[in-house]
Amino acid sequence: MLQDIFEANLEKRAKNLFVPLNGKKMIAFIDDMNMPIKDIYGSQPPLELIRTWIDYEFWYDRKTQAMKFVKDMYLLTAMGPPGGGRQQISSRLQSRFNLINMTFPFEHEICRIFDTMLSQKLQHFDDDIKYLDQIITKATVDLYQTIEKKYLPTPTKIHYTFNMRDISRMFEGLLLCHKIVITNKVEFLRLWIHEAHRVYSDRFLTTNDHDLFIKILSEKLA
C-alpha cells in the first residue's frame, strides 16, 4: 500500500513523530496519481491518505488507529488527463497542489521538429531515400496518434502510456542509420518497421494487442 511505501523511508523520532531517514528531508514523487480506481462511494483511498496528510500532517496506524505525524516530507506528483484508466481526482485534493499544466504541441510543430532532423540526416543518401523524410515523419506521428487512442492505460496495463518520447525514440534509431548499410527505399522502410516494433510492440502484453499493432502498422505502410 501507499502508506507502507512512505513509512519504509521514515524513522521514528518521538512517540508519534516520524521523519525521513538519517535526518534528511524527503521528496516523494507519485507518477500517474489519478490511476487508483474509485470505490463504490466515488473516493480513491490512496489519494484520501495523501489529502489527510497534506491537511493535518498525519495519518493513522492501520493496526492501532494511533496518529502518526510525518514531518519533513514533500510531495511532487504527475498525471495525465482523465481517460482510459485515468480517473478524475477530487477538486478537494486538487486544490491542495500548485498546478503546472503542460500542453501537447500541435501536430505540425512535431512534424517540423523531426522532419528537420531527418532531412539533414538523409541529405547524403540515395535519391529514392532522400525524399522520404516528410513521408516517414508524417507516418511516425500518425502511428503515435493512433496507438495513443487504441491502447489506453488500465490498472493491469498501467504502462500503456505514450508521449513524445516514443516519437523521439523512433527517430533516434532512424538517425543512427548509415548510407553504406541502408542503400534503398525498401531497406529504410524495414528499418522504420523495426524501430516501430522496438518502441511500441515490445510493451504490449497480449496477442490481441500485438495483432492490432500489426494491423495498424500495415495501414500506415499502405
Automatic annotation (TrEMBL):
PANTHER family: DYNEIN HEAVY CHAIN 6, AXONEMAL-LIKE, DYNEIN HEAVY CHAIN 6, AXONEMAL-LIKE-RELATED. InterPro entries: DHC, DNAH3_AAA_lid_1, P-loop_NTPase. One of its GO terms (molecular function) is dynein intermediate chain binding. GO terms for cellular component: dynein complex. This is Dynein heavy chain 3 AAA+ lid domain-containing protein. It comes from Adineta steineri. Residues 139-219 form the Dynein heavy chain 3 AAA+ lid domain. SUPFAM superfamilies: P-loop containing nucleoside triphosphate hydrolases (SSF52540). GO terms for biological process: microtubule-based movement. It holds the Pfam family AAA_lid_1.
